[in-house]
Amino acid sequence: MNQLPLLYFYTNMPTPYQLDFFDALKEHFNLHVVYFTAREQDRQWNLSTNANGYSVTVLKNNLLAKLIQQKVPSVHYSNSIKQVALESKAEMVIVNGTYWSPNVVLAMKYSKQAGAKVYFWGEPVFPVFNTIKKRAKTFLLGPVKKYTNGLLAIGRRAAEGYMAYDYQQPIINVPYNINHHLFDDSHIDQIKLRALKTLYAPNNEIVLLSSGSLIERKGMDTLIKAVQLLPANIPVKLLIIGEGAEKQALLQLIGPDPRIVLLGFREKDEVPYYFRIADMFVFASRYDGWALVVNEAMSAGNAIICSKSVGAAYDLLRDGENALLCDADDVEGFSKKIQLLLKDDILRTTIRENALTESGFISSEAMALKIVMLYGENR
Predict the structure, then answer these.
(1) Which has the least CB within 10 A, 85, 155, 268, 293?
(2) Comparing C-alpha atoms, which of 64, 68, 13, 17 is closest to residue 37?
(3) Contact (Cβ atoms closer than 8 angstroms) between residue 8 and residue 89
């Protein structure tokens, strides 16, 4: 029996989408995941670092890193990162996280020194136009250019951003991904599903869903205002999953409107049920490097209305085919497109079916196979 190649994967902490990716990767690699911490202070996920089918190391931040994390939670530095990387004997290494964070830089540097093929899995870099800021960003991106054999770009915008900073190594598009099968009937308790539908749409209202942190960037205020513009006789219910600093302001904006409900935070295993009771997924984010919720909406077969300022929309969504696209902050535009899908059953069904059909193309299984192909090309 052939031994699987050793893949080390460095990342900040356990996240739902990465756990799906790891489960897919372990089928093809002897996978070892190195977490920089068990949990970051601004995250609500309750996820274990224990794994089934692959090994895990959880590093400890030193005192300086813990002080910095009070302002920037995603910055990590462990005194043991050098030893872990040099002693790994990995054939292939993937590093994810804030590109200038010490653990990220050192994981890339020492993995390359140890002879591994090193890849950085990165989101889009924020564009800057000030000359001084651009020089600073170019400097901070230096280790990614120097120590990697290629970039795993989280979407085309990430690829374009790194090329703008003169990244010369191969770039492979490997967006955030999920196990799309978790939204299938085989993984859903039908009794629970019907109970949720009855609870939130007792009069067969059309259920609109959105999901994301309740912060200004996610544009939940735009979505709430768009629903409030709908005629009162249209039977809809908007459900919003998420917590955040803007919660009280959004509650004030909602006021007594019974059509809009803030559900709060939901754990990973609960999320598919809310997507499955939804008829439409509406996302008005002002900016998202990717937005995994789009993958979830496609996997659930939702009719999607999405902001054009979302990385996943740029890669995956085609206006009028598998989604309707709208400018961020266009309250009237979102309201009109919601009404269009409410009125046009054929268009709504077409969008839902197209999105569902394409969901497997960007699944964790599909992305793991990209890594397998990349490994084969570099043997």
Answers:
(1) 268
(2) 13
(3) no
Same domain, 129 and 186: no
Burial of 287 (0-12, 13-18, 19+ CB in 10 A): middle
304 and 168, same structural domain? Answer: no
| Torsion angle in degrees (nearest 10) through CA of 188, 190, 196, 200 | 110
* 105 found inside a domain: yes
Residues 249-276 have a mean pLDDT of: 96
pLDDT in tens, 286-318: 999 999 999 999 999 999 999 999 999 999 999
Per the prediction, the chain carries an average pLDDT of 94
Phi-psi region of 89 (alpha: psi -120 to 50; beta: other; left: phi over 0): left
Q: In whole angstroms, what is the distance from residue 59 CA to residue 72 CA?
A: 18
Residue 338 belongs to domain with CATH number: 3.40.50.2000
Looking at the domain assignment, is residue 1 inside a domain? no
Same-domain status, 202 and 184: yes
